[in-house]
Amino acid sequence: MSVQTEVPLIRVQDSATVIGRLVSLSAKHLNDFKTRWRKGLQTTVDQDQYWDWERKQRIYLTDGTGIYEGYAIECEQLTQGMMLLQIKGYRSQVEPSRRLVYVHSLATAPWNRVSNPAPNGFRAVGSALLRFAQFRSENLGYGGLVGLHSLPSAETFYQKMGMIDGGKDDEKGGLTYFEWYQRRTSLLEELGVDVESRESIDE
């Protein structure tokens, strides 16, 4: 799915709101990872410093199955964040009969990290990506349900985003599972059926 939408970011230097673009992942973003991100990540202790987004793209986004989707946020001609979603094959841990969008990977550029923010960096990149995952879930008819396994250093972020802490998952190396769960008002509403019209028909 090709996407291009504006997202508000906050510049660290002066707390000004700056408009970025959330777009489908492309070769430009992978090149930014290779030439701009990788060196910065190697000097951090962040647990995603060994992630290889070029490899992720080859494995998950080129098989033609449509199971995975990749997105990035651009601002000031640089890739500020990237996300890999799995849109098929995952179900809610709260209500297993319901499908959800699973965040396979989410990362912000080294200069945007809370642990070491650069003056020319941006805040709200990770939250903008995560909220897009929720939008994508709604768009797919999953009712806004989103799940993920968090790296230990990111757990506080997902808690602040209001996600349910599902505890440690031994099948995922002891990573903590988080889920955005929303109880559906009714099955008919989730399927997009006009309840009032349905009642009239039944009468």
CATH architecture: 3-Layer(aba) Sandwich
Number of helices: 6
Shape, per Cα inertia axes = globular
Backbone CA Rg: 18 Å
Polypeptide structure, described:
The protein is α+β, with helices and mostly antiparallel strands and 203 residues long. It has one domain: 3-Layer(aba) Sandwich (Aminopeptidase), CATH 3.40.630.30. It is 28% helix and 30% strand. It contains six helices and nine strands. A nine-stranded mixed β-sheet has the order 6-1-2-3-4-5-7-9-8, sandwiched between helices. The longest helix has 16 residues. The radius of gyration is 18 Å and the shape is globular. The C terminus is likely disordered.
Key descriptive features of the protein:
203 residues, alpha+beta, Aminopeptidase, 9-stranded mixed sheet, 28% helix, disordered C terminus
In short:
This protein is an alpha+beta fold and 203 residues long. Helix content is 28%, strand content 30%.
Question: What does the secondary structure layout of this molecule look like, with pairings?
Answer:
Layout: E1 4-11, E2 17-24, H1 27-42, H2 53-60, E3 68-75, E4 78-86, E5 101-108, E6 122-123, H3 125-139, E7 146-150, H4 155-160, E8 164-169, E9 175-180, H5 187-190, H6 195-202
Parallel strand pairs: 5-7
Antiparallel strand pairs: 1-2, 1-6, 2-3, 3-4, 4-5, 7-9, 8-9
